[in-house]
Amino acid sequence: MSTLIRGAVHGVAALDAAVLVDNGRITWVGAGRPPVSADRELVAGPGEVIAPGFIDLQVNGFNGHDAAQGADAISAISGLLPAYGVTGFLPTIISSPLSDVREFVHAVQVAAAPGARVLGAHVEGPFLNPAFRGAHEKANLAEPTPDRIAEVLAAAPRMMTLAPELPGGMEAIAQLRDAGVLVAAGHTGADFEQGQRAIDAGVRFGTHLYNAMRAFHHRRPGIVAALLMDDRVTVGLIGDGEHLHAATLEQVLRLKRPTRVALTTDQTAAAGAPAGRYRLGGRDVVSDGSAVRLEDGTLAGSVATMDELVRRIAALPNGSRERAMTAATESPAAVLGEPHLGRVCPGAHADLIILDAQMRVRLTMVAGRIVFER
Predict the structure, then answer these.
(1) Among residues 56, 66, 266, 307, which one is catalytic?
(2) Does 266 participate in catalysis according to the annotation?
């Protein structure tokens, strides 16, 4: 069934714009009458905008479901995320034995996607710096030997976060890069020079920038400065009001061009659910409704939703709706190498949302199919 969606379109100047969707793809974007008639028509109301669906690169869980529990949990998360505008996501596992990592990646590959697209597995660890492990279990951490990297590659994750300063880290980055894995630096104590070498080796993403990284110092800027200064790198921001100060968010927005900043929720099973006790990759965590922590107070992911992050970035003094939308759509799609996601243009997948005047999700479409509406 073909669908014509009329109304204001993100990135299109004309007020009487429309998007024509057919067979799961966008076939036309413009003003006035489309080249062919559609089977049905949807209309965005006053103050509403038609936009690309959000893409989240780091989803550990949602609404009581821990992604590490397997394919059924991942499918359930897929069905829930469109209510918050997410049309594609990377289920994420924190540091675990490699046998569990293999099982998780396989679960991601076979999980049904009734709602948001399952875009591949994000493996965060176990090759992390113990001093910057955050909520990761120390006993599960390991060094990235060639044999261990080969074991990870046999499972074929989409993205992997590691600490480049570990013994064998630079070689591991190159090995992962050559296999087509998106390599991210995170949970790392690397200094500035090590950060530069890691980027040259193939790091293209900074996982939850500033969090679980060596603190920036004016004489020892660390990997944070390397990630911020290199235009080959996209940085992830958890803009939930807990992980980063608003001034830090603004600093990053000023330093990095729009398509090199990606909002990531780092959601846990506590997101979209009441305060209480939940699981994160096999660990007990506690949510107070605003933040998720281990018993010792260590931050352990978030309760944020992607639409909430978009509203927060748009509300910053130097933020904007345009900048926030780019960080939730085009930027994550670009770093994943997905040119047909995150944009409203002919040939792109018809993964679309309609946001109301308060930037809340009113409708979500994946591959031309409405998967959420209120």
Answers:
(1) 266
(2) yes
